[in-house]
Amino acid sequence: MKKIACISMLLGVLLICLTSQSLAFLLDFESGVDLESVGWVTSGVQLITIGGDDLIYADIDEDRAFYSDNGKQNTDWEHYISGDVAVVSPYDNVAQVNFTQSISYFQIGYSSWFPFVIEAYDSSGNLLDQASGDANSKHANGTGLLYLDAGSASGNISYVLLYSDQGDFPEPGWWVIDNLTYEYPTTPVVPEWPCQVLASVGIMLFGCARRFRRSR
After folding, report:
1. Which of 59, 148, 158, 215 is least surrounded by CB atoms within 10 angstroms?
2. How far apart are the first and last CA of the chain?
3. Residues 32 and 127 in one domain
4. Spatial CB neighbours of 75, under 8 Å, sequence gap ≥ 6
5. What is the largest distance, in Å, between two alpha-carbon atoms of the chain?
6. If DSSP codes are grouped into helix, strand and coil, which group holds residue 92?
7. Over its length of 216 residues, how does the chain's per-residue pLDDT go in tens digits?
8. Cα separation of 199 and 194, whole Å?
9. Could you give the angle at which helices 2-17 and 193-215 cross, rounded to 10 degrees?
10. CA nearest 90: which of 114, 62, 69, 116?
11. Are residues 34 and 95 in the same domain?
């Protein structure tokens, strides 16, 4: 019984110490400057069009919609965003979010005149997950920003495509995105000194119990 108790104590200590941590980040784009290119939002996240063109920041206070006409500015903001600044794609309907390190989870807020789609791929171009949502711009009688997410249990998402489903002749600029969340795969946390001490004590107690049993 004492041996079982010691083993239980040791396992309990190890369960406490061997925790895991997921690294999640939110990009709200609020620091973006109106009409400037987005590019590398951070050192590990790049936003471009599938054709390699720039996405740009759009400040809602500037009252621009950026729809159709190859990026020409229109003066009727038809989108919902969170805060004051969002990201638009005035030159291509399909945008691509690239990650230098593979992720396990992706979420994006969007406002679109047409149904909106996200597709997550690995580094070899294999489709891992996808999601779609209804049109939700003011023109489409939407009521606010909507969110789509995609994930991979293997943590191997290398890039994500974003686009509005317009049929056979898609035009750029009919959607905006905001509040991008991404998460790296769960990683073990190195135990700090309190856990290391607890684990050492547990191992010592287990060893003492074994010696005590042998001495009887």
Report:
1. 215
2. 14
3. yes
4. 63, 64, 65
5. 89
6. coil
7. 555 444 444 444 444 444 556 699 999 999 999 889 999 999 999 999 999 999 999 887 765 555 444 444 444 568 888 989 999 988 899 999 999 999 999 999 999 999 999 999 999 999 999 999 999 998 899 999 999 999 999 999 999 999 999 988 788 888 999 999 999 998 654 545 454 544 454 555 555 455 545 555
8. 9
9. 170
10. 69
11. yes
| CA 167 centroid distance within chain | 27
Return the sign of the alpha-carbon dihedral for residues 40, 44, 49, 52.
positive
Q: How many residues does the chain have?
A: 216
State the Cα–Cα distance between residues 173 and 94, nearest whole angstrom.
10
Same domain, 91 and 196: no
**Full residue range of the structural domain in which residue 207 is found:** 2-15+191-215
In the chain, the amino acid numbered 168 is D
User: Which amino acid would we find at residue 24?
Assistant: A
Q: Do 101 and 142 belong together in one domain?
A: yes
